[in-house]
Amino acid sequence: MKPLVRSLLASALVLAAGSVSAQELRIGYADPVSSLDPQLNNYAGDRSVALHAFESLVSRRDDKTLPGLAKSWRPSCPVNTRL
Prior knowledge:
Layout: H1 3-17, H2 44-53, E1 58-61, E2 64-67, E3 74-75, E4 81-82
Antiparallel strand pairs: 1-2, 3-4
Protein name: ABC-type dipeptide transport system, periplasmic component
Signal peptide: 1-22
Keywords: Signal
């Protein structure tokens, strides 16, 4: 196939795809959010956002440990846990 024909077909496919608009999610909080990085959010307002946005490896409800993203866990030594 000639390069010109390939270029025209590629352009036609791009134009046929149409435009995609961005989607927004707006959440109202009383406190300003300083970071959405789960490693940096020790502030209570940031943690509340992270709890809605990220799933944890293990969660605890009513003093019972329930799996989250981790399907199993076991101690690999007295100090470490293998998830």
